[in-house]
Request: fold
Amino acid sequence: MDLKKLGAFALTSAIVCTALYGTAAAETLRLSHNTGDATTWHKGAEKFNELLSAETGGDMTVRVFPNATLSGGDQMKQAEMVSRGALDFVITSAINVTPLVPEMAVFSLPYLYANYAQVDATTDGAPGDKMKEIMDSHDIVVLAWGENGFREVTNNIRPIKSPEDMKGLKMRVAGPMYIDVMNALGANPQQMQWTETFTALQQGVVDGQENPIGAVIIPQRVYEVQKYLTAWHYSYDPVFLGISKKRWDSFDDATKEKVQKAASEAMAYQKQITRESTEQGIALLREKGMEVYEPSAEELQAFRDATKPAFDTWAAKVGTDLVTSFQDAVAAA
Ligand code: X2X
Reply:
């Protein structure tokens, strides 16, 4: 073979190899989440794609689907789809998983946490690992915890300063535990998809809702359709980046390491931007025309007392040992 032919042969081989192995290795995975494309959930998902693509030299990319479109708009169905391998990745919050894994309600028990240090002591400690084990037994591998945040109440009828002010308000809630909490406060709760909530608030189908400020209320412009917000911090809501166990088990160790690294970094970023946005949040909401009320310690205690029946009901569903392990970590923080 002369040099020219050799060169042509080498080039052809390279092209064939790339065609065979290059494209065969490149893989697009699907990630579902159930908020809009301006939220910190979405930014975390995009960051995950960016990091994983870089980590794998473009062999793995992640296509992000917001607004629960892959589960037909049903935010609770995502977890079940991931669990049976119909979805690769999900970013969703604890409350959405409770129909499948009731133990996930532990994070959001009313007034379990008073601050971020207590939150981090559980997600970064043994309680968070225990929850990963429980999720794993439902075929969802939790790669990393992120943050939806402390959920604050908004409405269009009146400022909320005491449990009495909640009486009779028509409240949209995300999941079953919040139904019980709202009932304990004498409100009139209704479970509704997040994607339908903005319109429902706008049209007065419901008077109010509750969501975290930085992750959801600001990016989804809830201030355009709600007048009053009370920063009552009644329930903390983590998000997590999870992968179907089926998909996870199909990866070799080197791939697992890359996916894990990208997930941990992406969710650390997601948590950081959520906290930053929350910190600026109340000032921004006031600028936007909302009337924001920040309850005193005594007023918070009144909300805590009033929601105690829902805490007890859900602590029993979650299991006392698990609740105690969370409370111990909180007390030590
Ligand atoms: O539906 C909600 O309220 C949201 C976006 O916070 C959750 O997914 C729980």
User: Anything to note?
Assistant: Strands lie at 27-33, 60-65, 89-93, 140-155, 170-173, 188-191, 208-212, 228-244, 291-293. The chain has a mean pLDDT of 94. The longest strand covers residues 228-244. The chain has one domain: 25-332.
